[in-house]
Description:
The chain has 169 residues and is mainly α. It has one domain. The longest helix has 16 residues. The radius of gyration is 15 Å and the shape is globular.
Amino acid sequence: xxxxxxxxxxxxxxxxxxxxxxxxxxxxxxxxxxxxxxxxxxxxxxxxxxxxxxxxxxxxxxxxxxxxxxxxxxxxxxxxxxxxxxxxxxxxxxxxxxxxxxxxxxxxxxxxxxxxxxxxxxxxxxxxxxxxxxxxxxxxxxxxxxxxxxxxxxxxxxxxxxxxxxxxx
Length: 169
């Protein structure tokens, strides 16, 4: 089972979601829906899993800030990789269902870990930007503040992302 959740496998999951994620970042309503689903999933997780996913709220804030054009100092490819990971986290057809004790969340944790790892410099830069601008740290995913529809003119992701090359090293 350890081989099922290798870094290569998790990276492949993120790569596979790139095309769908690319379409989502141009649609504020779909991003809102995804972030709401992610929040609901995070609420239902045991504390040990939530602690392992402690950077997911920061990742969600960065996606939201990018889509609202509040923070654009990041490549669309980074945002696409994060959205791709979120899509896997909220989907209901995991390799092992999440309700299976202990191992059910292993695939989700692996995907989130890869998304955090490959985007760590960008996440750190975003956290520093938030602090520099006096913005609150990401405490939780908050879809109560939806992405505004006026950002529908966010330019489409630059250059179609291809698996492997789409995700920063």
